[in-house]
């Protein structure tokens, strides 16, 4: 009987040790995934992976305007609530995503003319209602919000959006102030992408210079126009006492050697803010799904970015954009050219990148010793 109990204990320990949540937590990292509510409810393997690995989750789509605010004055929180309730039940916290963006907006918002005053009222109502809902219904669970997403073009100019064009430059500041009014305890982030591949793809569509994103050879914020624009913006917000607490570096890596994120984000900590890797994925060519060399290079890229976060005193969060390759946005957004971007294959089996992160986090845990387990959380939390 004792042998059996011992064996059961060993099995439980091995299973827990072979997942990411415990070693990540011990290494002082909030690690997690962007999640989909239907998959969480219907797919036991998917839900099991989220339970085993994630200390934080981000709703991939279900807090966006078109889903939570489908008609004027009508809010629908059912799907987002199911994600937040499941996270709360498992002691995970949630990154709220996203309050102000130019995509996934409902037609009622984009298909009519607004005056500045009207649109500021709509924005205030939306931010107060959405942030207030989660503060009231799930106190303390949605700890961070991506307040504004992707405000700049590749060349560092302000992106032309309904918010920018109708309200003007100060829409950003207004959004942060509204979010802080609705939940004074939430950590408020500006979020954007800087990786060479995605910046180049978008720049090409917009007729802008394309070789301007961050790569392994170009990691200084000074050399990445979008990053210098973000830095100026955030410096201005801090100088004017606008409630901002962090900067999200999305981290969508499209098949190129990733930048040194610690260097790219080195300006954030001196401002008294934190930074996070909010949407990490590393895309391969579709044909490379079982190519060991490509999978190893992918593991290198994941390891490099997670190491950058672990080594920075101002970073404590890494969220991977999708639980497995069957639930990744990359094939859809690249017309099938790229894929295999997450840590598990389409059957949910952990890939070399997963095993690499497991080794990295376990080693970091051993190095830091048993008292480690909180770093930025204490300073910035
Ligand atoms: C993506 C989702 O993953 C897709 O399912 C959806 O069709 C489009 O949006 N930057 C962001 C995320 O901030 O919200 C985007 O998510 C990916 C790029």
Helix content: 40-55%
Main sheet properties: 8 strands, parallel, barrel
Structural class: alpha/beta
| Small molecules bound in the structure, each named once | (3S,4R)-3-hydroxy-2-oxopiperidin-4-yl beta-D-xylopyranoside
Shape: globular
**Proportion of residues in extended strands:** 15-25%
Distance between the termini: 46 Å
The total of beta strands comes to: 10
Task: Tell me the number of helical segments per DSSP (H or I, 4 or more residues long).
Answer: 17
Textual characterization of the structure:
This protein is α/β, with parallel strands linked by helices and 381 residues long. The chain contains 17 helices and ten strands. Strands 1-2-3-4-5-6-8-9 form an eight-stranded parallel β-barrel, surrounded by four helices. The model is unreliable at 8-16 and 370-381 (pLDDT under 50). The site of (3S,4R)-3-hydroxy-2-oxopiperidin-4-yl beta-D-xylopyranoside has 7 residues, from loops.
Q: Helix and strand layout, with pairings?
A:
Elements (H helix, E strand, L loop, with lengths): L1 H16 L3 H6 L3 E6 L1 H6 L1 H10 L2 E4 L5 H4 L9 H12 L3 E8 L6 H4 L5 H22 L4 E8 L12 H6 L3 H12 L4 E6 L3 H11 L18 H15 L6 E4 L2 E3 L6 H4 L9 E12 L6 H20 L3 E6 L9 H4 L4 E2 L12 H17 L7 H5 L1
Parallel strand pairs: 1-2, 1-9, 2-3, 3-4, 4-5, 5-6, 6-8, 7-8, 8-9
Antiparallel strand pairs: 8-10
Helix pairs in contact: 8-10, 14-16
Bound molecules: (3S,4R)-3-hydroxy-2-oxopiperidin-4-yl beta-D-xylopyranoside.
